[in-house]
Amino acid sequence: MSRPAPSPIYTLRGAGGALNTLHFSCQGGDTPLLFSGSGKGSIHIWNLNTRRALKIVEGHAGSSVIWVSTLQSTDALISQGRDMQVCLWDLSEGRCEVVDSVWTGSVGFCQCSTLETSPGNFLLAFAGEQTEEIKIIELPSKSQVCTLVPDAKLGMVMCIKLLQVRSGPLLVAGYEDGSLLLWDVTQRSRLSLVKAHPEPVMCLTFDTKRLRGISGSSEKKLSSWTLDRQNNLQLQGCVTLVNPGVSQLCVRGDGKLLASAGWDHRVRLFGWKKLRPLAVLQYHTDMVQSVAFSDHQDPRQRLLAAGSRDQRISLWSIYSEGGDTG
């Protein structure tokens, strides 16, 4: 049975548009930060101590910002916009300027994914100009690694996630026909294909410690799956939701909690081990499009952020939920 739902500890307003993406950076220095990307093309850098925007930057010519992240070892921000550009920002010493960019050619909403391969070097995966195409490059050199195109007709690539396992970097992708496809990045080859949903895969996430992932779509179901020792995807089970539609999924760093961003304006919390429902967070008045757990070193400081089409970000303290997650 679900627990009584808490209330947000505070909210952030002033994004000026629908919130498409959120990313925490709370381990560097004394100022915990939250980055947000809006439908109006702005990136807000929120100071979580003052609960105000530290900086507001524009880098995608007013086009919707659909993904933001940080490259930890290089003090850099990376952002993706509907202008088909991925921008690399220099944040060091108070600067905030675009130092490089990558043209993707993608007209879809598929968010990029990064993976650090060595200090200062990253893989960047993004949807390409062709609807089923995924391109992977190295940063900062921008050298081409591979282009991944499935043999079967799976439709548009909807979501991607780079993974680091013992055998090397892998990529799991969700497609328009509901399929999940696992790629070996080094060998540029297809490893495994499963049909996880009857509808397009809208979002997915993966826990590399447990070799387990979960995906969502426009239906009333989350699909759980694992990666076996032969690097095959195995469908494991599903969670039935009250209302259809999931925008994003996120597993907390300690592997205890799963959060889902719902089209029904709600955030749902599950125990990640058994996918047991824990709480339904109700605050927003429109579709929740992004959820993110903070990376505070102190577990008692960890937060959950949710961004919505209602132009607000809600912050929730759910540390107490971690004791009995089941």
TrEMBL record:
Ranges: WD repeats: 281-318
Keywords from the UniProt entry: Repeat, WD repeat
Keyword Repeat: yes
Gene3D superfamilies: YVTN repeat-like/Quinoprotein amine dehydrogenase
UniProt entry tagged with the keyword Repeat: yes
Entries under SMART domains matching the protein: WD40
InterPro entries: WD40/YVTN_repeat-like_dom_sf (IPR015943), WD40_repeat_dom_sf (IPR036322), WD40_rpt (IPR001680)
Pfam families: WD40 (PF00400)
Entries under PANTHER family matching the protein: GUANINE NUCLEOTIDE-BINDING PROTEIN SUBUNIT BETA-LIKE PROTEIN 1, TRANSDUCIN BETA-LIKE 3
Protein name: Uncharacterized protein
Record organism: Mola mola
